[in-house]
Specification:
Number of strands: 6
Number of domains: 2
Order of helices and strands: HEHEEEEE
Structural class: alpha/beta
CATH superfamily of the largest domain: Nucleic acid-binding proteins
Oligomer: single chain
Shape: elongated
Number of helices: 2
Strand order of the largest sheet: 2-3-4-6-5
Distance between the termini: 77 Å
CATH class of the largest domain: Mainly Beta
CATH topology of the largest domain: OB fold (Dihydrolipoamide Acetyltransferase, E2P)
Largest sheet: 5 strands, mixed, barrel
Helix content: 25-40%
Radius of gyration: 23 Å
CATH architecture of the largest domain: Beta Barrel
Length: 120
């Protein structure tokens, strides 16, 4: 019995779907692992300058200034010279807070794009 070309195409298609599913599952697993890595602890702005963009960082300190950029977008300035940008309600000036976020850059100055804020 001779098999037609249609059957070979069907078998190839089934194998491709299995491989695609395996690749997607591995990719999702890799993303979960990368997102759960502990952020790097930094002490002051000189530590921040040496890091690449999008590096996850954590910093704590006293907020000495809080500015509204526009709408709910705000900038927190810490006593150690680091600036952090976030969207949300303010009221952190004078508080000791711990933030976690990623390194970003604005006008050749590095800052932290905040993902999480916790008052200590």
């Amino acid at each position: 019995m001779k098999l037609g070309n249609g059957y070979k195409g069907f078998v190839l298609l089934c194998c491709m779907r299995k491989w695609a599913f395996i690749v997607v599952v591995l990719g999702m697993f890799t993303m979960v692992v990368l997102l759960n890595l502990e952020p790097k602890e930094i002490e002051d702005y000189s530590d921040l300058e040496g890091l690449e963009l999008n590096t996850r960082v954590s910093v704590s300190g006293e907020v000495v200034d809080e500015k509204v950029i526009y709408g709910s977008r705000r900038v927190l300035s810490f006593d150690n010279g680091i600036e952090a940008v976030f969207d949300g309600v303010g009221g952190f000036e004078g508080e000791i807070v711990e933030i976690a976020g990623v390194v970003s850059e604005y006008e050749e100055t590095k800052q932290i794009e905040v993902e999480r804020i916790r008052i200590r």
